Amino acid sequence: MPEISPILSELSKSNIPIPGQENIEFSEVVTIDRVLKNALVLPTKTRPKKIAFIGSEGKEHMFLFKGQEDLHLDERIMQLLHICNLMLAGSSSSRSWPPYCARHYAVTPLGTRSGLIQWAQIKHSMERKNGVPATTAALDIDRPTDLFQKKMRGVFADNNVEAAIIADRSKWPHNLLREVFNSLVKETPKDLISRELWMRAGSCDTWWRVVCRYARSTAVMSLIGAILGLGDRHLDNVLVNLDRGDVVHIDYNICFDK
């Protein structure tokens, strides 16, 4: 952190509220006491930084600092999800457990080119290794994206596809893409998520509650996603909490059927 921002590194006992407390009483607002010295730079295109604020109550609050990106749309989407939850909470159909709700998180734009995103405490993305549950997957099994690329290279070689076409993804033959997709679908167990949830549950009662929460969470986000025209829903942008069953969508840059 001292190399990234010396000012934040030296921050101490400030009166700055931790982002994401819009619906909390003023007397209960937690402020930033200090910033942890260590920051994790993620190896992605925009090099976002995972940072931690220590609140005035002594707890860690994790955030992702993203640059080169306008987060105002994400902020508006989070506000919409909050409103949807209020509407669902007031309906008669939501009085049973678990409630119908859309999991959301704090997004705080710091301008038109950067902002803070509350770190979603979800340890599992929908991307699983080779269709094997995480509890049994070997560490050396390829990720689905790696498997896809490997299979595409194979079909390109088998069909003598020109290098110019391979270099331009928009020109990849649809029949070859369909062939690879069907092959991956065939190799992936249809009950993959069901097995994950079952193996994580400590009892039948817990499993039933997690499955119900997963079903309702998926239903709500599917409906909202259809209304928003939400795109870019690849496996890294859909997270699932295998302990609770919550489905969390991240990265809302592609909306309104773009």
UniProtKB/TrEMBL annotation:
PI3K/PI4K catalytic domain segment(s): 35-258
Cross-referenced PANTHER family: ATAXIA TELANGIECTASIA MUTATED ATM -RELATED (PTHR11139), SERINE_THREONINE-PROTEIN KINASE SMG1 (PTHR11139:SF119)
Pfam family, one: PI3_PI4_kinase
Keyword Transferase tagged: yes
SUPFAM superfamilies given in the database record: Protein kinase-like (PK-like)
GO terms for biological process, alphabetical: negative regulation of macroautophagy; TOR signaling
GO molecular function terms attached to this record: protein serine/threonine kinase activity
GO cellular component labels: cytoplasm; nucleus; TORC1 complex; TORC2 complex
Kinase listed as a keyword: yes
Alphabetical list of Gene3D superfamilies matching this protein: Phosphatidylinositol 3-/4-kinase, catalytic domain, Phosphatidylinositol 3-kinase Catalytic Subunit, Chain A, domain 4
The protein, known as: Phosphatidylinositol 3-and 4-kinase
Record InterPro entries: DDR_Repair_Kinase, Kinase-like_dom_sf, PI3/4_kinase_cat_dom, PI3/4_kinase_cat_sf
Keywords: Kinase, Transferase
Organism expressing this protein natively: Teladorsagia circumcincta
